[in-house]
Specification:
about 350 residues; alpha/beta; Nucleotidyltransferase, domain 5; 3 domains; 5-stranded mixed β-sheet; 5 strands; about 10% strand; elongated; Homeodomain-like_sf; Transpos_IS630-like; nucleic acid binding; Transposase
């Protein structure tokens, strides 16, 4: 069986002679397919050589300068390390790049700008793979985040809080609030390829709200309510927690305006012997384990049923949370997620 010739392994003069023979054969009446088979080259190469001959004549078939094109090449180890460092530590807009996300095209542009080395997106992709990177869906983070405050919380404030809670024999709770809507859809459903599944639900929109607090020991307190989350609702929830608590409560919450209100501050001061309210740094919900309980409710209480009324929705959420109260191991497992493992 005749094998194809790898022209890349031939010297320049032999390459040029082969191109000339193939072009003359086709001009003499041989088909391009026949020429490719006769001379053991690819049909694509024959087509390319014929095009060169038509556009540039015999000169276009002569051997050219071999090697990388001017401006092409590879990054050395130092350059590669710097580019990787920029990708890991910054986003494109922080480097004045006209991109929002790190794509292969963006990486190629960055390398071209920094070192004048031209790389195809494919080659940039190979570099990214070598650097241990993969394409991933990014997590949204607010510009208003104070990274220094978050680092201080993880390395100083929270460890200190744990020691203080231990000294006071207090229990650390993580709290959060969430709104639920009847038109929320979560999860995936199998369907024929190319046919998006349709979920039938009531056309009426209604909702409810919930507030909850969990501990890394698996305890869960919650309250499902209608209407807006305000001072009165939060105070009622705190009163319920205090009635059930046997130890002092350290409750960690976000910076919601209700948590910072004068009424709440006064209530906490009046119950200082049994209650302490601590606020997380701003714009870092991923550090609150209770956010994972919210997702659990959306996925497993709302995502697996279609309530037809507000009363049915509230009942479904309450039943799910009552079930979770009897499953402390599920609550404890929430603290194993990488962003909140520090609180386990």
């Amino acid at each position: 069986m005749k094998t194809k010739t790898d022209a890349r392994k031939l010297d320049g003069a032999t390459q040029a002679h082969l191109r000339k023979l193939v072009v003359e054969a086709v001009r003499g009446g041989m088909t391009q397919t026949g020429a490719a088979s006769t001379y053991g080259v690819s049909l694509r190469a024959v087509s390319k050589w014929m095009k060169l001959s038509r556009e540039g004549g015999a000169r276009a078939l002569k051997p050219g300068k071999r090697g990388r094109r001017p401006g092409g090449g590879r990054l050395n180890a130092q350059q590669a390390a710097r580019i990787r460092g920029l990708i890991v530590s910054r986003m494109p807009d922080q480097l004045a790049m006209p991109f929002y996300l790190w794509t292969r095209e963006c990486v190629s542009s960055l390398i071209k700008r920094e070192y004048g080395v031209t790389l195809s997106p494919t080659t940039a992709g190979r570099y990214l793979k070598t650097w241990g990177m993969s394409a991933q869906k990014p997590v949204r983070r607010a510009y208003e985040r104070n990274d220094a405050a978050i680092t201080r919380w993880l390395n100083e404030d929270y460890p200190k809080l744990v020691k203080e809670a231990k000294q006071e024999k207090a229990t650390i709770h993580w709290g959060d609030e969430m709104g639920l809507r009847s038109d929320h859809v979560s999860g995936k459903s199998f369907a024929p390829m190319g046919q998006t599944p349709v979920v039938r639900a009531t056309g009426k929109r209604f909702g409810c709200n919930m507030i909850s607090a969990i501990t890394n020991r698996g305890a869960l307190a919650f309250m499902v309510f209608e209407g807006k989350f305000n001072n009165a609702v939060f105070i009622e929830f705190l009163k319920r927690m205090l009635r059930q608590a046997t130890r002092k409560i350290y409750l960690i919450v976000d910076g919601h305006p209700v948590h910072r209100s004068v009424a709440i501050r006064r209530f906490v001061e009046e119950n200082a012997e049994r209650l302490r309210l601590i606020r997380l740094p701003g714009y870092c919900p991923e550090l609150n384990p209770d956010e994972l309980l919210n997702q659990d409710v959306k996925t497993n209480a709302m995502g697996k049923s279609r309530p037809t009324s507000k009363a049915e929705m509230i009942d479904s959420v309450r039943r799910h949370l009552h079930r979770r109260q009897k499953q402390p191991h599920v609550i404890r497992n929430l603290f194993q997620e990488k962003h909140v493992r520090y609180a386990a």
